[in-house]
Specification:
Helices cover 35% and strands 18% of the residues. The chain is of the alpha/beta class. It folds into three domains: 103 residues, Winged helix-like DNA-binding domain superfamily/Winged helix DNA-binding domain (Arc Repressor Mutant, subunit A, Orthogonal Bundle); 119 residues, ATPase, nucleotide binding domain (Nucleotidyltransferase, domain 5); 157 residues, Nucleotidyltransferase, domain 5 (2-Layer Sandwich), CATH 3.30.420.40. Strands 1-11-10-9-14-15 form a six-stranded mixed beta sheet, sandwiched between helices. It has a five-stranded mixed beta sheet with strand order 6-5-4-7-8, sandwiched between helices. Helix 1 packs across helix 3 and helix 4 runs parallel beside helix 6.
């Protein structure tokens, strides 16, 4: 595990794909577990970074109150993190009794990370700073993905995306996270790829191949789970300790947060919501959720209506006006998603559902409101109430989520960090 005081240490680790739990707290009460022992210094540093990320600028007195640490310990940790460039001082707050309060906040230059999104229609490579802001980006589109397409894109785009960094900034790159659908070869028919054209994905480790091109640690994650990580780490959904996440892309995917931690599952494929069986909205029988609530299905409807669907992929934030075709797709998607929510809530008692996707804001708004309305019409006896919320990241969630993975691994509060690091010499 990489100490937050030395982000460049990650550069010396071997390339790896990880399925460690990605943990983050949800409320101020969840942070009240600080300790003064030197052996848990890393835990306390990550605890404080998570506090500042979630609640904004904080003073040493506020940190002490939230964590149970002494003011002296809080001050010492804050001073270390400032010296390491992860926190920075804000202007003193004057006008109160006593000495002015000096809050600290995250320093955007404290760390950087790269995220590679491998999609069924496009690839994106982004460079984000410590606050999750995209600094540079590159994009490539294609009819269907192959490993050669992806690796050629990375070779071309990586120098372009990182070329503007100075030496000090480059040394603060924490790693590269890959957000990719699993079993890409399974969807060749749905996306119109020739038979066998995507079979090469069966026998390649894209994390290893990218790692040979790139000198820092590489982490692989399911693309929808990565999108959930972006919402959890940089969005507002962290306020819910348990939530189910739907991301509507070319195909619909999902993510799950339980007890303040992103849950990836035994094989990294937890919350594969697109595969959930539902009753088809048109009454034609049982089908998978992704057969209705996926953007590729909208593309097919647009083409069937004699319209050009290219704006769907060219600019996810600004689709052309497809009129009634879009509205019917929204209605069917909402009906299918509402069924999936009831089924999932009967197994996992989540507090909220978050819906996001690669689509214009007005489309996402309509889907969210329609899902909430349709839930009220379904038989939910025996189930707890839950909220239906909009995601706040949008089309970039998968790429930003990929980039978030190295930051989560290196800097987030991890419930296992005490067990991992005590006795390992990393104090």
């Amino acid at each position: 595990m990489v100490e937050p005081r030395n982000p460049s240490r990650a550069n010396r680790d071997s390339v790896r794909a990880s399925r460690e739990p990605l943990a983050e707290p949800a409320t101020a009460n969840a942070f009240a577990s600080g300790a003064d022992q030197a052996g848990v210094r890393m835990y306390n540093e990550r605890l404080l970074l998570s506090l500042v990320r979630r609640f904004g600028p904080l003073s040493k007195i506020e940190v002490a109150r939230m964590t149970g640490l002494s003011v002296q310990s809080s001050s010492a940790i804050m001073n270390r993190l400032q010296a390491d460039g992860l926190l920075r001082r804000e202007a003193p707050l004057r006008g109160r009794v006593g000495q002015p309060t000096v809050p600290v906040t995250l320093d955007p230059e404290g760390a950087f990370s790269l995220g590679l999104k491998i999609g069924r229609r496009s690839c994106d490579l982004v460079l984000i700073d410590f606050c999750g802001v995209i600094r540079r980006r590159a994009k490539s589109t294609f009819h269907y993905p192959t490993p050669d397409h992806v690796l050629d894109f990375v070779k071309r785009a990586l120098p372009e995306v990182t070329g503007g960094l100075n030496g000090a900034q480059s040394r603060r790159i924490a790693g590269l996270g890959i957000a990719s659908p699993f079993q890409l070869w399974s969807w060749s028919t749905e996306i119109g790829a020739p038979a066998g054209a995507m079979d090469e994905w069966r026998n390649i480790s894209i994390a290893d191949e990218v790692g040979r091109l790139y000198p820092y640690p590489v982490t692989l994650c399911n693309d929808a789970t990565a999108a959930c990580a972006a919402e959890f780490f940089f969005g507002e959904a962290w306020r819910e300790r348990d939530f189910l996440y739907f991301f509507i892309g070319t195909f619909l995917g999902g993510g799950l947060v339980l007890d303040g931690a992103l849950y990836e599952g035994r094989t990294g494929n937890a919350a594969a919501l697109g595969s959930m069986p539902i009753a088809a909205p048109d009454g034609s029988g049982v089908s998978q959720l992704m057969a209705w609530a996926s953007i590729c299905k909208l593309e097919q409807r647009v083409e069937a209506a004699g319209l050009d669907p290219q704006s769907i992929w060219r600019d996810p934030a600004a689709w052309d006006d497809f009129g009634e075709v879009t509205q019917r797709w929204i209605d069917d998607s909402a009906s299918a998603i509402a069924q999936a929510i009831v089924a999932a809530a009967s197994v996992v008692d989540v507090a909220a559902v978050v819906i996001d996707g690669a689509m214009p804001t007005w489309v996402r708004d309509q889907i969210q409101h329609s899902v909430a309305a349709r839930l009220e019409t379904l038989d939910r006896r025996g189930l707890s109430d839950l909220k239906v919320l909009e995601g706040g990241i949008g089309a970039d969630a998968r790429a930003i989520g990929g980039a978030a993975l190295p930051l989560i691994k290196n800097f987030a509060r991890d419930r296992e960090v005490l067990l991992k690091d005590i006795g390992s010499g990393q104090t």
